[in-house]
Amino acid sequence: MGRPGMPGPGGMGGGGGFGGPGGGEMPNREEMERTGAAMEGVMRMSNRLIIVKAEAGYLLTEDDGVSMRIPAEGKKDTGAVNGAPFETSTKWQDGKLRVERKFKGGLKVTDYYAVAGEPRVLTVTSKIEGTRMGGAPPTVNRVYDLDAR
After folding, report:
1. Which of 60, 108, 128, 136 is the 20 to 30 A CA-CA neighbour of 89?
2. What are 81's strand-pairing partners?
3. Average pLDDT per run of 10 along the chain, which is 149 residues long?
């Protein structure tokens, strides 16, 4: 797969400030660093994504060599993004593979993987929750063409 698209409608926006409307407690420094590291890894857009199906689920590898395991449906796994640990769960939902990653501190990233169209393209839509930004959760869309090599 190659050529990621730019963020789609909904963009990467959100409100401002911590705790949303009405304020809230300022997160501690460790939590902010962990969330920042996780967000940096989640928001990275690779030019190429290699997906390999295995008995235990899938293995996704980006063009820079960063890999992520996606467990088989109904199973859980653990991993880390930029040193920030998370737990992953997977299920099929409305013809899309739904992969949910929960990070310590409340950050949750839900990725939806869908293949459609002619020529076939893979669309990965990521919904990011628990960032302590007000407004709607940020959404990032990436689109990959099939690479027939």
Report:
1. 136
2. 84
3. 40 36 58 73 78 88 86 89 87 93 87 91 89 73 79
